[in-house]
Design goal:
Length: 150
C-alpha cells in the first residue's frame, strides 16, 4: 500500500499570508472575532481570523482534527493545559504552532494592536468541544457543530 504524503499544515497556512489573495476582504469586528474560510480541499481547510485587543476564544479542541495556526499580524497568546493549569505562550507575527488531534487551547489577543491569524485543519473542521478547567480537570461545556455554530 502506498501512502500519500500530506502537506505540512503550517506551510499550508503560510500560503495564505497575503490578504490580497483572499476570496473575502479582511475585516475587524468590534463585537466578536471575525473569521472566514479561505479554502477547502480533500486534504485540508484554511480559515482566516482577525482579533482586536481583548478578543479571544474559549478553551476548546478541534473535534479530532490536526491543525496549525500562523500569526500573520500582531501578537496572540495561546494557553494550553499543563499540570492542571493554563500555561501561556506568546506568538508574534511570523510565529506558528502545529498541533495534534487532541490539542486543547485558548487563544487571545492580549496586546494593544490588531492581530490576524491563519488556521489550517485536517480533515475539515466538523465540530469543536468547549471546556471549563475545574480543579485542574477539563470538563465539557459544549459541543459545537459546523453549519450550526459557525
Amino acid at each position: 500500500m502506498t501512502r500519500t504524503r500530506t502537506a505540512d499544515l503550517l506551510a499550508v497556512a503560510g500560503r495564505y499570508a497575503d490578504p490580497a489573495g483572499w476570496p473575502v476582504p479582511l475585516r475587524f469586528d468590534p463585537t466578536d472575532r471575525w473569521y472566514a474560510r479561505l479554502a477547502v480541499t480533500d486534504d485540508h481547510e484554511v480559515w482566516a481570523l482577525s482579533w482586536l485587543p481583548g478578543q479571544g476564544t474559549d478553551l476548546h479542541d478541534h473535534g479530532g482534527c490536526s491543525g496549525a495556526f500562523l500569526v500573520v499580524a500582531g501578537e496572540l497568546t495561546e494557553e494550553t493545559v499543563s499540570g492542571g493549569r493554563l500555561r501561556p505562550h506568546r506568538l508574534r507575527a511570523g510565529a506558528g504552532r502545529r498541533f495534534g488531534s487532541r490539542h486543547v487551547h485558548v487563544v487571545t489577543n492580549r496586546g494593544d494592536q490588531r492581530a490576524v491569524s491563519l488556521h489550517a485543519y485536517r480533515p475539515a473542521l466538523r465540530r469543536m468541544t468547549r471546556y471549563h478547567l475545574v480543579d485542574g480537570h477539563l470538563r465539557i461545556a459544549e459541543v459545537a457543530e459546523a453549519g450550526v455554530a459557525w
